[in-house]
Amino acid sequence: MDSLTGKIALVTGASRGIGAAVALSLAGAGADIAVNFRSRSEEAEKVCAGIRKLGRRALPIQADVSQSDRVKEMVAQVERELGTVNILVNNAGMARQIKLEDIAEADWDEHINVNLKSAFLVTQAVLPQMRAQRWGRIINISSTAAQTGGLVGPHYAASKAGMLGLTHSYAALLAKEGITANTVCLALVETDMLRSNPRATSSVIPIGRFGNVDEVASVVLMLAENAYMTGQTVNPNGGWYFS
After folding, report:
1. 8-234, what's its fold?
2. Does the predicted model carry a pTM greater than 0.85?
3. What phi and psi values does residue 163 have, to the nearest 5 degrees?
4. Of 143, 162, 155, 150, whose CA–CA distance to 234 is shortest?
5. Residues β-bridged to residue 143
């Protein structure tokens, strides 16, 4: 597996769960990986150790990707220590279940900043070099909540739905420059986020079980390798939402 040899991938929120699985999958295909994390340094180091065992370079890098100054510093560090980012996976996110009547403006702002603004900030930071090289992959990790409303609440669903519009615009504007942009809308994958949601039950999934992180990672890898798919939403959701 060397389809991504020579490529540099930046995966946000990659210290655990889906982000960690994606980082390892891309490394398995030959990419060197920048493992972004906000607070779980030990877990990020373990992911990097796994990447190095695959024979690839790995850089753990702490940054709150909802803050523009930290994003700029992060991307500059990745470029210095690994090289130009060719593949960006905007995976960092949060989901706090709140009763509809209790959702406050601060809750709304936090989810928009962490789930949507971060994707915009990091994409804008890596785009100049992608455009200069005329090669890039932008992969945004969204949620079936963007399509169905989901199980968390409108603050979360809106932040994830915004990623669809963001992806569509980048795809349309960059299609002739060798850069693709796609979204992965997943549902009920076994992660800490899922386990913290008391409403999450596999009974809503037609396949009858929760997904696993490797099933999502395989979709991300496919999008990273594919030069002809752009502007699309891929749905590893167990059949909860059809498109």
Report:
1. Rossmann fold (3.40.50)
2. yes
3. -65, -30
4. 143
5. 186
